[in-house]
What does this fold into?
Amino acid sequence: MQTSLLGKTAVYAVILVGALLFLFPFVYMILTTFFLGTNTLPKPNEVFHVTPNFANYETVWNKNHFTTYFMNSVIVTSVAMVGSLFLGALTAYGFSRFPFPGKEFVFRIFLLTMMIPGVINIIPQFVTIKGLGLVNTYWGLWLVYIAGGVVGNMFFLRGFFESIPKELEESVLIDGGGSWRIFWNIYLPQSLPAMGTLAIFIFQGTWEEYFLALTLIKSEALRTLPIAILMFNDKYATNYGQIFAASMIALLPVILIYMAFQKKFVQSGFNEGGVKG
Amino acid sequence: MSPSKSRFAVGLRQWMAVLPYIALGLIGTAVFVLYPMIKNVLISFQNFSIMPNATNAWVGFDNYAKVFEDPNGKFWIALRNTFLNVVATVPVNWFLAILFAVLINAKFVKYKIVFRTIYYLPIVTSWIIIALLFKYLFADGDGGFVNYILHQKLGLLPKAISWRSNYWSAMVMIWLFHIWKTVGWGVVIYLAALQGVPKDLYEAADIDGANAGQRFWRITIPLLKPISVFVLINLVNGAFGFFPQVYFITKGGPMDQTQVIPSLIYTQAFEHLKFGPAAAMGFMMGIMVFLLTYSQMAKIGKQRMF
It folds into this structure.
């Protein structure tokens, strides 16, 4: 298929303008983090003429217990991620490999819960966690994050688990291993790309989760990064350089992980089991 | 042993075999998802308070009446905005996604992965931070970047706009925020789908002398139809479920004019402590979303969504 030079130029022009539109806000944000004035909105002319420096990053990192909030988020996110992956995989394995009466019914209930927007559940989830005496603890957060995500994670992994050939299980069975060994030695290693993709989704979702954390966590010392950043924003509303330096630090882990693994990403949704390059 | 009893025994044995794997998931879902859904319905019929020792008296449909009889009509405004959000964002989002994907997929385009990565970048960033960034870009006066470009540089606006202080400009800002943040998802889905479009169809079309536009409308669009159904359903649901888009940009302001139901539920419950009316709105929204999703699923038949 031959495309004329004019056609090629037009195509490149459109996708380059698109790329510029998606990249520019990030560039403007990064330039703003180099801006040192604290009392006024940085004017575009000022933003375009900043000298790169890390003064704002240093200030933010050492100010307002930022490192505490960062570590809080690391703890909350990593436990929630490991717990969600394990429980999601375990449940998906049960549903993809075992026949049992009432499976269809359980599936329908699960699908129903997927359709209902999560915000509706925040009020009663808060009441439930309060009833368990877990308000203002990470256990409360972890329980809701892990238990609230298990249905979606199960649906995501089930497709991959079902595409694993049954013949692979026979080697374990011949060696005298049972269902547990099949899960651990066959299903988990065989679905690493899917597990990895899901891990990134869960990481991102938990790392930036705001509403539940705001509702459940009351004491300042336990706050997570998203809450800290919004409070920081309310407190130093005009200190744009520092607000965006803090934002950049919060964004960096997710962006780095995404860039590192994006070639191994699996498309979720329509082509189950397919690994896309 | 009677056949029915043996079937019961088999079923029991099957349950015992699967239970170690699914028990935790079932209990977790029951306690933290299903029970809250039921509890939400109960709260919607109570004069509910989170204070200890509150009586939480049953009040029938009072909370629902309060929602509908609100003198400012907040619920109706939120409902109207929800439909506006769908109408304003879904077509743009869909068209940009398929356009960018098809162009990036053109044979001669180099660095496809770089383009895909850049387009997907907004998806992996946090709603909160991008909302802060958008509020900064759309700041009032000529110091805000968007005003600076549109008013001072290009002269497209007669004066600098206070984007978040007026209903329509706030809505436009929320839509732009949503589209910018989510277009990459559609692009990536379509790019993956395009890998499966057979090349020889295009070669045949070339021989017949079809131009780029004809190839796009007569081959690409029809072949991608199943994926487009999937993409459109997700875009409609996404636009229907606006929450961070509104909460982090305007908090529903000015004067609750830009609220959508989720943000209204959240602010009514946790800022005004009106849990009963918030739960009533939640239950009504749950039913609406269920009917919407259910009708979509019935339409596309048994095609698996997950």
Remarks:
- Chain A touches chain B through 98 residues (CB under 8 Å).
- Confidence is low (pLDDT under 50) at residues 268-277 of chain A.
